[in-house]
Design brief:
It is globular, with a radius of gyration of 13 Å. The protein is an all-beta fold. The chain has no helices and eleven strands. Strands 2, 4, 5, 6, 9, 10 and 11 form a seven-stranded mixed beta sheet that branches. The protein has a four-stranded antiparallel beta sheet with strand order 1-3-8-7, with no helix packed on it.
């Protein structure tokens, strides 16, 4: 049974940093795209960042230069380092996996991702 568990969320002041972690279990994810999405109250779930099995990355314009995604294939982990946080980054952050084997395209649409975690809350105060 596939399970994704996020951790590392919390309350931080604007300009601060957080590091989110996602632990994947139930299968080996080394050949799949792993990504992060977020959903703020009253808004659609949106793409944040993703990393392919060959470590190519893609970011939403709103987080470029501030967030860094990385993965540890040996331990089935994906991370999101978030720096220079802004109040508009406040949302529930979700880890997700696109199970297209050895995908070379990093998708940004949520419908391309089959597995999802339960989310971790990130709140940035002004």
């Amino acid at each position: 049974q596939v399970q994704l568990v996020e951790s590392g969320g919390g309350l931080v002041q604007a300009g601060g940093s957080l590091r989110l972690s996602c632990a994947a279990s139930g299968r080996t994810f080394s050949h799949y795209v792993m990504g992060w999405f977020r959903q703020a109250p009253g808004k659609e779930r949106e793409f944040v960042a993703a990393v392919s099995w060959i470590h190519s990355t893609r970011y939403a314009d709103s987080v470029k230069g501030r967030f860094t995604i990385s993965r540890d294939n040996a331990n089935n982990m994906v991370y999101l380092q978030m720096n220079s946080l802004k109040p508009e980054d406040t949302a529930v952050y979700y880890c997700a996996v696109d199970v297209t084997y050895a995908a070379v395209v990093v998708r940004t649409d949520r419908y391309g991702y089959e597995y999802w975690g339960q989310g971790t809350q990130v709140t940035v105060s002004s």
